[in-house]
Automatic annotation (TrEMBL):
Residues 68-133 form the Glutaredoxin domain. The keyword Transport does not apply. The lineage of its organism: Eukaryota, Viridiplantae, Streptophyta, Embryophyta, Tracheophyta. It is found in: Cytoplasm. GO terms for cellular component: cytoplasm. It comes from Quercus lobata. The keyword Cytoplasm applies. Residues 17-48 are annotated as: Disordered. This is Glutaredoxin domain-containing protein. It comes from the Eukaryota. InterPro entries: GlrX-like_pln_2, Glutaredoxin, Glutaredoxin_subgr, Thioredoxin-like_sf. Belongs to the glutaredoxin family. CC-type subfamily. Keywords: Cytoplasm, Redox-active center.
């Protein structure tokens, strides 16, 4: 499963760029490179990679498969704050770290969909229930307004 590396207990590094040749499971190969460790058994959902999928399609699929997902750059302190805020509420989001060239594959907000200007996707970006909430500032604003818990309950990420 090339392109997927576990960075820590709660962050998965996903390489969304196309792979030159898909790895075969099981049989033969002499490849010599070390295989990534298998995902931990404590993970509640698995991340799957289809090498034929484009980066945009993978991101859209991941958004639809996870009630709360954060797309971030490596070592992003704002992502850490987002995770801590959500963890204090009782939600543990899926976090995907993207390279700078992969950030462009993030879907934009619905609010600027009619804009003819090129978009500049921000990272970290949090998606709740398939909807882009935005970055840290938007997440904190949602929390301070009292709407974050309601939204998390609606998408099934939190039970009260």
């Amino acid at each position: 499963m090339q392109g997927l590396r576990r960075c820590s207990d709660d962050i998965v590094r996903l390489d969304l760029t196309s792979l030159s040749s898909p790895s075969s499971s099981g049989g033969g190969g002499g490849g010599g490179g070390p295989q990534p460790p298998p995902p931990s058994s404590s993970s509640s959902s698995m991340l799957s990679i289809d090498v034929a999928e484009s980066a945009e399609a993978r991101i859209r699929r991941l958004i639809s498969e996870h009630p709360v997902i954060i797309f971030s750059r490596s070592s992003c302190c704002m992502c850490h704050v987002m995770k801590k805020l959500l963890a204090t509420i009782g939600v543990h989001p899926t976090v995907i770290e993207l390279d700078d060239h992969e950030i462009a594959a993030l879907p934009s907000d619905d609010s600027d969909s009619g804009s003819p200007q090129p978009r500049n996707p921000a990272a970290p970006s949090v998606f709740i229930g398939g909807t882009c909430i935005g970055g840290l500032e938007s997440l904190v604003a949602l929390h301070l307004s009292g709407q974050l818990v309601t939204k998390l309950v609606q998408v099934g990420a939190l039970w009260v």
